[in-house]
């Protein structure tokens, strides 16, 4: 019988939304590989997943260390030969979430935020794309944020009007642009690329006042990771709702 195992790699998979995404994909039968920059935390997350009955592996991945990209590719290629799902979940927020700082955001904050939230994602995706193309139905999920929606920010009476953290928001808008461009480039292939807004979630990044619990945080990423052949590509979604760019 042909090998029907499906493999998913989730960056920042050792905690919060990434860990929950790993858990739910594992419960759907995926062999999940969690990427994290801290081996101790990665091992703890791996044990948690295995206790939950998930078939899981751990590999060191650090968005700030480009050399880990190739190490991840080598690991996946040698053990699995292909990659069915890539969830670019790792992200960084260095500003006040409700700040308004476009006039004075420090350059180092801009650079670090874009390095993690955009450049590292593009670099890793380019590295792993050959493995995704080997899968029968490759799926790439870029975990973005509604705060990257220029349409929402500029709308009259916008519900996100107060959240003008420029570096973070701009990095997510740029990530959305990557989604659009890559999806267009891959038209006619079996690979689908989409952006996901998980919601405002109680995590280290989202803070304690967020309305969503971690248990509900993976719905959008998991849905986009498991789209059928008739599913969308090049979109921006929260759960079943399409969001404006």
From TrEMBL:
Pfam families: adh_short. InterPro entries: CBR1-like, NAD(P)-bd_dom_sf, Sc_DH/Rdtase_CS, SDR_fam. Keywords: NADP, Oxidoreductase. The keyword Iron does not apply. It comes from the Bacteria. PANTHER family: CARBONYL REDUCTASE 1-RELATED (PTHR43963), CHAIN DEHYDROGENASE FAMILY PROTEIN, PUTATIVE (AFU_ORTHOLOGUE AFUA_3G15350)-RELATED (PTHR43963:SF6). Belongs to the short-chain dehydrogenases/reductases (SDR) family. This is SDR family oxidoreductase. It comes from Pyxidicoccus parkwayensis.
């Amino acid at each position: 019988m042909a090998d029907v195992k499906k493999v998913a790699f989730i960056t920042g998979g050792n905690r919060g939304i990434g860990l929950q995404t790993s858990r739910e994909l594992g419960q759907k039968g995926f062999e999940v590989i969690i990427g994290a920059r801290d081996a101790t935390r990665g091992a703890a997350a791996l044990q948690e997943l295995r206790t939950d009955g998930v078939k899981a592996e751990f590999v060191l991945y650090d968005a700030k260390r480009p050399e880990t990209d190739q190490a991840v590719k080598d690991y996946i290629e040698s053990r699995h030969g292909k990659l069915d799902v890539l969830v670019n979940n790792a992200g960084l927020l260095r500003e006040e979430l409700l700040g308004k700082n476009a006039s004075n955001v420090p350059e180092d904050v801009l650079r670090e935020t874009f390095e993690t939230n955009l450049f590292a994602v593009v670099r890793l995706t380019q590295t792993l794309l050959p493995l995704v193309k080997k899968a029968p139905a490759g799926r790439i999920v870029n975990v973005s944020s509604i705060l990257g929606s220029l349409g929402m920010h500029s709308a009259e009476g916008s519900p996100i009007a107060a959240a003008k953290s420029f570096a973070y928001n701009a990095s997510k808008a740029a990530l959305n642009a990557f989604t659009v461009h890559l999806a267009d480039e891959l038209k006619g292939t079996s690979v689908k690329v989409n952006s996901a807004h998980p919601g405002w979630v109680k995590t280290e990044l989202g803070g304690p006042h967020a309305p969503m619990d971690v248990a509900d945080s993976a719905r959008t990423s998991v849905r986009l990771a498991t789209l059928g052949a008739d599913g969308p590509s090049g979109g921006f979604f929260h759960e079943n709702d399409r969001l404006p760019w």
